[in-house]
Amino acid sequence: MLTIQQIKADPEKAIAKLAIKGFDGKEPIHQVLALDDRRRQLQLDNDTKAAELNKLAASIGTLMKEKKVDEANAAKAQVGALKDAQKQIADQLAATEKELHELLCTIPNLPCDMVPEGKTAADNVVEKVGGRLPDLPEDALPHWDLCKKYNLIDFDLGVKITGAGFPVYIGKGARLQRALIQFFLDSANEAGYTEVEPPYVVNEASAYGTGQLPDKEAQMYHCELDNLYLIPTAEVPVTNIYRDVIIPESELPKMNCAYSACFRREAGSYGKDVRGLNRLHQFDKVEIVRIERPEDSYAALEKMKDHVQSLLDRLELPWHILRLCGGDMSFTSAITFDFEVWSAAQKRWLEVSSVSNFETYQANRLKCRYRGEDKKTRLCHTLNGSALALPRIVAALLENNQTPEGIIIPECLRKYTGFDIIN
């Protein structure tokens, strides 16, 4: 969430920045300022009452030693009245702090200066293009037909076992999944990321820390009996490793990668764009996470983008990078770059990665800080990215590499799959 300092530094600028995300911040920002003023005054009143109490309590002992019993009793009565008054102030202070905190949770992160204005995905900016578009015949098959033809993924069986959006991977389809996961993890390790294997369910504090809660769009699966949430991405448990942690500056950056299954309700999704692997409720992904000093985070963001680009280049997939406009960004992000690959049979771009810098927004929720050489603590910047999400990568690999003889496996995956063609 935003810090009070961010808002107070220039409230009108904050309002203008929020408007880029399509959020009307005028009223909430002014409410934050008013509540903060009230909180500060109540804190001052509380401190004043505490000082009066301490002074009066000290005087009682002196009066008793001087045998001034009546005055001591009168002072005791004053202490009781002061305690009642202080409790009322403390209750008002706690209620004000709670109201302020809840209000701050409703305000999105401020987009950084590089974020273009725009309302929808149509306003995103193409930053970079790479790879070669495949030249397939007109009768090229979409991946869901290829999966059926070569018995790679059974979507109907998944419906039988669980429901739509939970496919069953079979034979070489399952081996291709495992190959991609290992390839992505090995590549992250080579880039300096330390692998962790996180839980697939998290508690409320963890989901709140990375901004999944409050879940306004009800995208998370909730295990109500235990009050736990299935993770929508490994970002959530991995970033929460650093919740309530003060990191020595010399230990930054923290770089982690993790494979996990991901679970998303995707409420309201339907139509041709969700067919096959295009949108699932359960899917596999390798995530990279960085905890950085603020002055280093944008250089780190470029390194993350380069890492994702290198994976797509090695997979020989055509790609482009989008710089998302304000209206297409997430609630918590300061800037996001989406990577999309070309799906030759569907003739459309498919998103396979989002790489984001959250600046201090998540860190403020997480209380993720670092201690500098001057012994002062400061909020870290948090970043994460998909490196990569599997479903649409698989879709593009199957479609783009189909030949009359079978589906050709990219060179970089063959040592993991144990085969170079699916036929």
User: What is the SS-derived class?
Assistant: alpha+beta
Strand content: 15-25%
Tell the overall outline: elongated
Radius of gyration: 27 Å
Strand arrangement across the biggest beta sheet: 1-11-12-13-16-10-9-4
Fraction of helical residues? 40-55%
The average pLDDT is 95
Q: How is the quaternary structure best described? A: single chain
Largest sheet: 8 strands, mixed
How is the secondary structure organized here?
Elements: H1 4-9, H2 11-20, H3 26-65, H4 69-104, E1 125-130, H5 143-149, E2 153-154, H6 155-161, E3 168-169, H7 172-190, E4 194-195, E5 201-202, H8 204-209, E6 222-223, E7 228-230, H9 235-239, E8 246-248, E9 254-263, E10 282-292, H10 297-314, E11 319-323, E12 335-343, E13 348-357, H11 361-366, E14 369-371, E15 377-379, E16 381-389, H12 390-400, E17 402-403, E18 406-408, H13 414-417, E19 421-422
Parallel strand pairs: 4-9, 8-14
Antiparallel strand pairs: 1-11, 2-3, 5-7, 6-7, 9-10, 10-16, 11-12, 12-13, 13-16, 14-15, 17-18, 18-19
Helix pairs in contact: 3-4, 5-12
Account of the protein in words:
With 423 residues, the protein is of the alpha+beta class. It has 13 helices and 19 strands. It has helices spanning 4-9, 11-20, 26-65, 69-104, 143-149, 155-161, 172-190, 204-209, 235-239, 297-314, 361-366, 390-400, 414-417, and strands at 125-130, 153-154, 168-169, 194-195, 201-202, 222-223, 228-230, 246-248, 254-263, 282-292, 319-323, 335-343, 348-357, 369-371, 377-379, 381-389, 402-403, 406-408, 421-422. The strands form five sheets. An eight-stranded mixed β-sheet has the order 1-11-12-13-16-10-9-4. A three-stranded antiparallel β-sheet has the order 5-7-6. It has a three-stranded mixed β-sheet with strand order 8-14-15, with no helix packed on it. Helix 3 packs antiparallel against helix 4. The longest helix has 40 residues, at 26-65. The protein is elongated and about 105 Å long. The mean pLDDT is 95.
